[in-house]
């Protein structure tokens, strides 16, 4: 059996077209969606991510602002800038690209963003809203994974066992919470899990969000399972690869996401969705 691909690029194109349409309607009513992206320092990977996010905004017809600061920007100056954006009516979403330089406290920065503009979904208020089932912003990467599941008819996961590998605040934990809200029976694994394969072999859906190559191999997957690969790593040739042994697992799984072209494009797409929703809420 060779798994079918869940194509993140194709799904992104479709969702972004819908976003652009809704954005145009909102703009026509005088409420153009606006995203501010802040980059501190000169991390080359961050610069690429930020550029892609700003371009995606422009393509969807959003107003977008990219603010770049030197690595020695003080924490106080960054917080002051965020406060100004919190009060700027043309900006509906604020994204501070992580990681920040070591002298700046990530947590303090995220908590300074108004929850109404927290389009990354990292604020404690957003995490809390997800936990209790209230309206907030969902973290973009797990939100994109849920969209991918929905695209193959898995919107309701009643009766399915979903296993999440990884428990970070930005991927693993919100992923588990979203799967739970979709009625899956959820198991969360991490570095302290004994016999990971024994657990993943029971899964109908596996989400790998670790940051290590080959964390999930063919012998760890139930035939026909859905495998979502969030990981972003480099292989020996320096090429982008995920956490999943793609070549092996695709022979066992029913569905699989590739890297690149899987979860990555969906993350940016869901940032656009969140920013649009923020603008729609502000205009309501
Ligand atoms: P993270 O904060 O480093 O968390 C990694 C998680 O994996 C931790 O919970 C850790 O457990 C767990 N882990 C480590 N080794 C393990 C093992 N051998 N078996 C089982 N679990 C293990 O990383 P993250 O921010 O969640 O990101 C995870 C990966 O996704 C990275 O490759 C990142 O680049 C990628 N990512 C991709 C996107 C995208 O758009 N495609 C977005 C975000 C992240 P402990 O908690 O016990 O340490």
From TrEMBL:
One of its GO terms (biological process) is L-histidine biosynthetic process. InterPro entries: Aminoacid_DH-like_N_sf, NAD(P)-bd_dom_sf, THF_DH/CycHdrlase, THF_DH/CycHdrlase_cat_dom, THF_DH/CycHdrlase_CS, THF_DH/CycHdrlase_NAD-bd_dom. Transmembrane segments: none annotated. Pathway: One-carbon metabolism; tetrahydrofolate interconversion. Homodimer. Residues 139-282 form the Tetrahydrofolate dehydrogenase/cyclohydrolase NAD(P)-binding domain. Pfam families: THF_DHG_CYH, THF_DHG_CYH_C. PANTHER family: C-1-TETRAHYDROFOLATE SYNTHASE, CYTOPLASMIC, C-1-TETRAHYDROFOLATE SYNTHASE, CYTOPLASMIC-RELATED. Belongs to the tetrahydrofolate dehydrogenase/cyclohydrolase family. Its EC number is 1.5.1.5, 3.5.4.9. GO terms for molecular function: methenyltetrahydrofolate cyclohydrolase activity; methylenetetrahydrofolate dehydrogenase (NADP+) activity. Residues 6-120 form the Tetrahydrofolate dehydrogenase/cyclohydrolase catalytic domain. It catalyses: (6R)-5,10-methylene-5,6,7,8-tetrahydrofolate + NADP(+) = (6R)-5,10-methenyltetrahydrofolate + NADPH; (6R)-5,10-methenyltetrahydrofolate + H2O = (6R)-10-formyltetrahydrofolate + H(+). Keywords: Amino-acid biosynthesis, Histidine biosynthesis, Hydrolase, Methionine biosynthesis, Multifunctional enzyme, NADP, One-carbon metabolism, Oxidoreductase, Purine biosynthesis. Catalyzes the oxidation of 5,10-methylenetetrahydrofolate to 5,10-methenyltetrahydrofolate and then the hydrolysis of 5,10-methenyltetrahydrofolate to 10-formyltetrahydrofolate. It comes from Ideonella aquatica. The keyword Amino-acid biosynthesis applies. NADP(+) binds at residues 166-168. The lineage of its organism: Bacteria, Pseudomonadati, Pseudomonadota, Betaproteobacteria, Burkholderiales. This is Bifunctional protein FolD. One of its GO terms (cellular component) is cytosol.
């Amino acid at each position: 059996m060779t798994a079918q691909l869940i194509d993140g690029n194709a799904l992104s194109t479709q969702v972004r077209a819908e976003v652009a349409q809704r954005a145009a309607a909102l703009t026509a009513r005088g409420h153009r969606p606006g995203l501010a992206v802040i980059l501190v320092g000169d991390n080359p990977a961050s610069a690429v991510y930020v550029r892609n996010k700003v371009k995606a905004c422009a393509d969807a017809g959003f107003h977008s602002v990219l603010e770049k600061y030197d690595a020695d920007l003080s924490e106080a100056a960054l917080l002051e800038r965020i406060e100004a954006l919190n009060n700027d009516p043309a900006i509906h979403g604020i994204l501070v690209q992580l990681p920040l330089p070591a002298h700046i406290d990530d947590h303090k920065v995220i908590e300074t963003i108004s929850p109404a503009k927290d389009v990354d979904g990292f604020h404690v208020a957003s995490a809390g809203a997800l936990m209790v089932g209230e309206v907030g912003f969902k973290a973009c990467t797990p939100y994109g994974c849920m969209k991918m599941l929905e695209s193959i008819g898995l919107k309701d996961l009643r009766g399915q066992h979903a296993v999440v590998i990884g428990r970070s605040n930005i991927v693993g934990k919100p992923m588990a919470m979203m799967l739970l809200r979709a009625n899956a029976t959820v198991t969360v694994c991490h570095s302290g899990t004994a016999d990971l394969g024994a657990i993943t072999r029971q899964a109908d859906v596996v989400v790998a969000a670790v940051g290590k190559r080959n964390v999930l191999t063919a012998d760890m997957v139930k035939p026909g399972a859905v495998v979502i690969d969030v990981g972003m790593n480099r292989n020996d040739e320096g090429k982008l690869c995920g956490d999943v042994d793609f070549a092996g697992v695709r022979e066992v799984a029913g569905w699989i996401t590739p890297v690149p072209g899987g979860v990555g494009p969906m993350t940016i797409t869901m940032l656009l969705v969140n920013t649009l929703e923020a603008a729609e809420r502000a205009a309501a």
